[in-house]
Amino acid sequence: MRFLFILLILFVASDSYAENICGFVHISKESNDGIIINFKGMHRIKVNHNVNGWAVSKSGKWFVVYGLPIHIERQFPQTTYLSVYKNIKEPKIMKTQSFGGGIFEVKFDNKEKNIFVSEQRGIYKMNTNTLKIKNIGINVDLESEIYSGACN
């Protein structure tokens, strides 16, 4: 009986993001500044910038939406925004970050501890615990196996 109780506690306390959701989640662009997420229910999300792309971590714990600003400023014409959300089941905005150049792609590492953003000035790494970001240079191969934590 004690063994079953311990198993129950371990099951409840385990990471609820362990499954690979890639075959079950569908995201589509609803408007220039909105997306629809279809995964265990439908969610409409309106962002404060245009939607040019998105990426979802394999567990669904994190997803990002990126795009140009709604109103382009003459002094910063290439600014692109990245909005970071937690929990695709019940989306919650965690951070919006601006980048000086266009975003080419976004990847997650296998453990989903970092988000990698490729833009014209290099690769940026955002820690998912602190949401702090730093430039890690241009000599990073995002096609490497360790950056395969996103649904493609």
Explained architecture:
This protein is mainly beta. The chain has one domain (18-147): Methylamine Dehydrogenase, Chain H, CATH 2.130.10. It has one helix at residues 2-13; strands at 26-31, 34-38, 42-46, 53-56, 62-67, 80-86, 92-99, 103-108, 114-119, 122-127, 133-137. Mean pLDDT is 82; it is low at 3-16.
Outline the fold blueprint.
Layout (H helix, E strand, L loop, with lengths): L1 H12 L12 E6 L2 E5 L3 E5 L6 E4 L5 E6 L12 E7 L5 E8 L3 E6 L5 E6 L2 E6 L5 E5 L15
Antiparallel strand pairs: 1-2, 2-3, 4-5, 5-6, 6-7, 8-9, 9-10, 10-11
In N-to-C order, the SSE pattern is HEEEEEEEEEEE
Provide the domain count: 1
- Strand line-up across the major sheet: 4-5-6-7
Shape: globular
Total helix count? Answer: 1
Q: Could you give me the name of the CATH homologous superfamily? A: YVTN repeat-like/Quinoprotein amine dehydrogenase
Percent strand equals 35-45%
Give the helix/strand class: mainly beta
CATH architecture: 7 Propeller
CATH topology: Methylamine Dehydrogenase, Chain H
Number of strands: 11
Distance between the first and last residues' Cα: 44 Å
CATH class, anyone? Answer: Mainly Beta
Low-pLDDT runs of 5+ residues are 3-16
Q: What profile does the largest beta sheet have?
A: 4 strands, antiparallel
| Arithmetic mean of pLDDT | 82
